[in-house]
Amino acid sequence: LVYAGTMAELDVDRFFSRLQKLHSHFVKHNDAVWGSANCLSLNRGALDEDNLYLKSSILHQWIFGYELPDTTVLLTKDGDFYLLATKKKCEFIRDASKKIPKDSPIKKIHLLLRNKEDGNEENYNTLWKAGGLGSEDTKLGVILKEREHNISEDGILGPWERKLTEAQEAKEVTLVDIAAGLSFTMSVKDDDELDVMKRSSILSNKVMKHGYVKKMEDVIDSQDPITHDALASYIDEILENPSKIGLKVPSDDVQACYYPIVQSGGNYDLKPSAQSTDKNLSHDIILVSLGARFKNYCSNISRTFMVNPPQKVSETYELLAEMQEACLQVMKPGKPAKAVYKAAVNFLQARDESLVKCLPKNVGFATGLDFRDSSFVLSAKNSASIREGMVFCLSVGFQNVELSKADRASCSEKSAVKKLDKYSLVISDMVRITNDAPDILTKMTKDRDDVAYRIKDDDEAGDDEEESDDDAPEAPKGDAQLARKLANEQSARGTRTSSRLARDAAATQDSAEGAAQREKKQIELMTRRNLDRVKELARKNRNKKDGDAEDQAAELETYKRSRDYPDPHPNQVKVDMQSQCLFLPISGVPVPFHISTIKNVVMPEVEGATLLRINFYTAGIALGKEAPSNMIKLVQKYAPYASFIREMTFRSLDGHNLTTAFRQISELRRRARAKEVREQEEADLVEQDKLVRTRNERVPRLSDLTMRPVVSARKTQGSLEAHTNGLRFTSLRNEVVDIMYANIKYAIFQPCESEIMVLVHFHLKNPIMIGKTKRLDVQFFTEVIDASQAVDNARRSMYDPDEMDDEQRERQLRKKLNTAFRDFCKKVDAVAKKNGHHLEFDVPYRDLGFTGNPHKEMVTIMPTLNCLVNLTETPFFVVDLDEVDHVHFERVTYMSKAFDIVLVNKDFNKPPWRVDMIPNEDKDSIQEWLTDMEITYTEGPMNLNWKQIINTVKDDDRFYMNTEEDELTEKEAGWEFLRMFGREDEDDNDDDEDDSEFGSDKNEEEEEEEEEEPAPAAVTAPPSSSSNLSAAQEAEAAPYRKMLKMGLPDQMVRLKMGAAGVDESIIQSLVGSDEPPPKRGAAPAPRARAAPAAAPKPSSSGGGRPALDLSSVTLKKTTPNPPAAQSSGGGGGGGRPKIDLASVNLKKTGVKLVEEEPETSWKKNWGAPKAQPAAKPTTGPAPKAQPAAEAPKPKAPPKNFFEQKQRQDPAIAKATKASTQQTERDPDAGMKVKKWVPMSERNPEKFKKNSKEVLDAGKKTTTTLAPLPFRQRPYPSDAASPSGSESAIEKMLGSFLYKNVKFDRVTVNAAMKDQDILLLYFGAGWRSGCKKFNPKIIDFYKLTSKDCALELVYVSADRTMFEFKDLYNRFPFLAMPTGTVDLKNQMTKDFKVVDMPALVVLNAQTGNLISANAAEEINSLANSRDREAAQNVVNGWKASKSVPVKPPGAKGAAAPEQAAPAAAKPTASS
Length: 1470
Hints:
six-stranded mixed sheet; eight-stranded mixed sheet; alpha+beta
């Protein structure tokens, strides 16, 4: 029973009406659906909010209007009604027990009060006798499905259910299920229920029509990506709060029947249990289902929306609508439920028999208090009769209908329907059964014309324009006819159109030379700005050692000691207005709460009592915009370890005290809020000096001025004077505003040319109070002409003398005012300089101006020397260029006519500035101006979530650095991640290419070692379970994963990866399958130039050059090759296979080409890709290796104008290639800046030797590239061993380890000191097995580390730094640095780690192997927190024999326990 502060009132008439209906049906149809029960036990267990549709819950709501939890009800055939419950519930029924109708079959109502003394034994005996129980022939009707849960309960119901179970086992009673009988009884609705069902259906209908459809149309029109789950969440919020679409429905009466279902993209499920996925909405065939629950009565509606549907889909949809009509025709009283399904099958067999297999198992179900009544499912086998007064959800649909390629041929190439090979359709409506035709309660249209949308593609738009030009009738009559024709076409039924702006190609043409120079300057500028920002932040952090005082939370204190409390009355809420706190009684003790801890206070409306609910600010929920700033800091401070009170509710029969407290709390919160707002307004106010008026001199003065902003909500006019240390404005109402010269940051004079006013504007350093508001911008202007003029309807001639005179006077006035304002500015400048102040007026550059929308209105924005401004319209738009950190251009695509710019503030606590709808023709001039002002910019094709990006950047201390926190993993510095097409700062097609990105980190000894044996395949992280990415591919994908976490849209990351030459398999694994990303100009060339498919050739740049991955080469059958093409292949005539270089996957590495061994270790390495044989031509002899000089050099097309200019101008290519061999270290930032040089210059002898080996290897056998994505950088350490004397553990783990997620370090020697056992835990956060194993290994480490001299090291296989930090933050043990990939790879080979989690046990001093299967031992522990068992495991390891660890394949190598050395067969390599 839901108590609303007082005892709810029973509707006696409805109670007896429905109880009599239940009893009559029970007696009349006892054998048919009630299992021949002698009496009914209608029990209700405890409240279960997770299961709203329990049969007992529905029954209680139907009979009582409320739920009576933990209640036992017994109804006999004789009409005796027994209720065993608590006192309040008995009082709830008592009034009805005295008002039994005379002719009612209910004879008497017996109220049995709960008795705790005997455990209700006497009450159970009373029920036992009343039901005539005690014999196997006696049948007791119960809801069998709920008994299992009820038996485990205590209270009243649990013992009674257990007593019945014992009696059934003793054959003293037979229990029968009555769920079907209850369904039949409640299936026919009375008039009150039908009215509520109608209202519920209307609610669902309006949410679909005004909520979902509007949102879906906006998404389709704007092309903004949105996931199915996000769209479903939007609908769910409307269902919970219908006021969002203008419906005035009490929120307590409304909720969702189920979480809305939105499906598209070919993955459909027509079951009611389907779920919305987190995939993006695809603009093809969209299915949506939602249901509203009004006063506990359910309704449902489903619709299919089609975007650019093929003809077959449209025809199938019309067939579905006709099939629904056929089903409606048989939904009449007396018909069996299976007749509806049979009607659907018969209809399809007559129209299209192929669709019968696509029909779901049922076409609907009865609904009401129960959303889906299983007894009245419209299936092929249900013989239950349909009766008048029932309400059904008729849901017809087709599941997974095939859509052939021929059916999709008519669709545009850009249409999402082009990707579908199957689709589904569904229509669901609420249907009321009447004696006449069925009444459809959900009236929303489902005609094909109203659910189909047609989006014009660019090609179609162009065709329409050409047709319009060809068929355009003559003007002027033709224009009107054509306009009417177009209007009729747009409004005609049959399709909805959503226009996409066509791209004006001429507007985006750019000068190749200017774009190349800009790109080059931007790359240099980005690097320099990143370094400057790092220095700036480093100095700022040094000056802020202990943190600003304002960032520290102030503890709340109202009373110093408890004896200072006032004397509140016991068990009463008291408000202390003076101390700003309230006392709340908790267990009779008054506890003070500061007013700032209260989020809100409400008084629910109930009858018979008064409730006061107080909600507090707590961790884990949104605090809201009105939360006090100090309270936000306190919540953040105590959130990790404190417990919070979320809400407290007080109830009183006398509401006077609670009502008074409610008013006082509300008033106190209002005062506290007003005080905080006032303090925030005045926080950055600086007390100005008093104005010193000029004496005995003529004061520069401007009269008849209007000031903005106004002082007192009216137009403020007056005069402006320049005095000794500032300006004074005096209005006609003697209002005074003083502006000090020292407080003026920028002064701007804007003459009147194309505007209606001339003005002077002051942008201040510190805000001043004007009226009751602080202002940072003050302006004084005079209008040249009135903003609005009265005009008559008569057209004046262009030669009208009066009009010519008016224009002449206007020109003279404009010139006069411009001269007066200019002279005033000069005089103010002179007065300021005379008194030791610097003040200079800027004039906006009109030639650089552009139109845009900064504040919901299109205005002209112009740059000045220091600002970007619009001063004509209010609110003013003034951007201080010194405060701009970066500028990003959004919506820069070939399809749009306009773009947006976002100017990021250096202070990340402030939101960025935006200017929308800038014409494309202004893009180049804006970018040129930004480059001249040394402001970096990037551009992208879509709008970004800047709130999420700024929050991420604000928390990243290394945002402007090019490495992660471990100083090993490289990343894009600063705002470079917003570059769509990467940094084009090197010539990829130059012959003098660098040997390797990682070459400068290698010393000569390492290089010599690599000559002797092939380098092992290095792995940064194993591939995810959903992809087969190799180690090198994972390393290449890592920076793009970070971009996705930062909030960049999937499509933007896809474009960046496509432009960077990332392999398509990586793109699909990271952001899902999609059409190829749009290319910039021509198709973007790969990062490295294509090499011939023959043996590798040396170049002047040495080893590590790009090589062909022939596993992705496409062989195309072509016509006889032209002479130019024939020269590049082997023998053979026309029509031979030809390598399609557009699909070749180019790989670039930092190690030499090595010969593949017969027994390769790639299969045993984490995530290493399997070697695939190169594609070979089917005809003609194999091409022979040619000398390097004769090898053809196919060039990829230039990726942008910068690369094109490099090819055309040798000077630019040379300047781009120039680099110096040095490593600089900035003392302020602690950041390394690397500049690479070719291997041919760094080590010529090594380069020549490698080149020769590569040639020799190419003549003999196939070569493979050993990827090496990272190289470990040694760190100096005082405790590390001298070079050449490393211990076995140091050689295995490196010189240092991480102690915590802050990357504090400890040397390996110090960590292993006094330790006996070392555990190596190979794991990753993305691995499901590791997620289960992590709690066990944490417990094991805590139980054994101190007592058993044990240390554990985490060997991470996480794919990104975010994943590593997220997981390692929970671990109490050490971890290997994320960049030590070589060492990790070697250990995986040494210990034969093939799966995770893996736990290897070593001797901590010698490094000898003890066990390689320790993970199984940990999992086998019955209790992971059993200290004795855990220590016994460690003692067993100590007693075990250890063996030396040797590399795989070495003679006498020690193998882990799971290997069988004796059974291993010798291989050619061994």
